[in-house]
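Hey,
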Amino acid sequence: MEYVTLNNGVKMPILGYGVYQVSPKSTHKERMIENFDVFDFALNDKDLKQISALDTGSTLFFWP
């Protein structure tokens, strides 16, 4: 299984279409603070172009 390491050091498995992320929930204050700190990254122009290239205007699924 392949993994990706986020900017905050968290290592998460890659499951085909992206990074698997469980629903954040906790009763511990420290973990709640960590769960809210998910936007510690920025997308540059290269990232945005790569994301835009993913939309090919077609689908791999059958739509009747």
